[in-house]
């Protein structure tokens, strides 16, 4: 009798139906926020394309639009990282239900209240919060999309300096062409290099942090993210 009293109650058919509707709701919300992520990426792609068109419209066109678009892409990246943090909440909840409820059910295993998966999910509803930091969100979006945009921007920028208005004769010409008004070309090239080294460091550093987090997340307050 004591053993039976300690057993966790099984899900009723009504509770299973409620969980199914809950799962559908989380899928809908994650899909909606995923669309918003695509919109931000589209803005970054379009503005980068416009900068390319302006910069390569003629041999004497300024490379400055390529510098400015790099900064604008970072702004879009920050917007998208913020949206990704919200998207990750809905995605993680739906994924948690899939792996802890539906997957055991499909394998013919006991999918009832075994373990603490239901408590983790309930705690996330009772005390909602972002599952990842802003920096980790930026790193994820960098690795998925924005690293390619920024890499292409860097190649285009130095390509412009190298071939227009004529192919380089010596390295000094590169700095002359990179100058922006009173700012010397050496400073511009240095800051450009620091800019790209910084986002590469963020992308790699957050990748390591994500791997560590995946190993430990099930033993924290929310086993998702």
TrEMBL record:
- UniProt KW ATP-binding keyword: no
Q: InterPro entries annotated for this entry?
A: UCP01500
Superkingdom field = Bacteria
Q: Any keyword Lipid biosynthesis?
A: no
The residues forming a coiled coil are none
**Spans traversing the lipid bilayer:** 40-58, 64-81, 146-167, 187-208
Which Pfam families would you find in this protein's record?
DUF2270
- The entry's keywords: Membrane, Transmembrane, Transmembrane helix
Protein name according to UniProt: Membrane protein
């Amino acid at each position: 009798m004591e053993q039976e009293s300690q057993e966790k109650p099984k899900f009723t058919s009504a509770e299973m139906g409620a969980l199914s509707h809950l799962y559908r709701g989380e899928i809908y919300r994650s899909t909606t926020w995923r669309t918003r992520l695509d919109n931000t990426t589209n803005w970054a792609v379009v503005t980068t394309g416009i900068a390319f068109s302006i910069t390569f419209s003629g041999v004497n066109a300024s490379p400055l639009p390529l510098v400015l678009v790099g900064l604008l892409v970072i702004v879009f990246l920050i917007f998208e990282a913020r949206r990704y943090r919200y998207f990750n909440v809905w995605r993680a909840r739906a994924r948690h239900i899939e792996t802890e409820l539906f997957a055991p059910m499909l394998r013919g295993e006991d999918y009832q209240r075994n373990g603490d998966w239901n408590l983790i999910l309930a705690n996330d509803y009772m005390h909602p919060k972002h599952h990842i930091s802003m920096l980790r969100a930026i790193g994820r979006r960098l690795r998925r999309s924005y690293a390619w945009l920024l890499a292409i921007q860097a190649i285009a920028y130095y390509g412009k300096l190298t071939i227009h208005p004529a192919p380089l004769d010596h390295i000094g010409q590169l700095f002359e062409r990179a100058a922006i008004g009173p700012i010397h070309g050496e400073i511009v090239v240095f800051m450009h290099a620091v800019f790209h080294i910084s986002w590469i460091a963020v992308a790699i550093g957050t990748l390591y942090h994500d791997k560590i987090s995946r190993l430990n997340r099930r033993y924290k307050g929310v086993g998702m993210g």
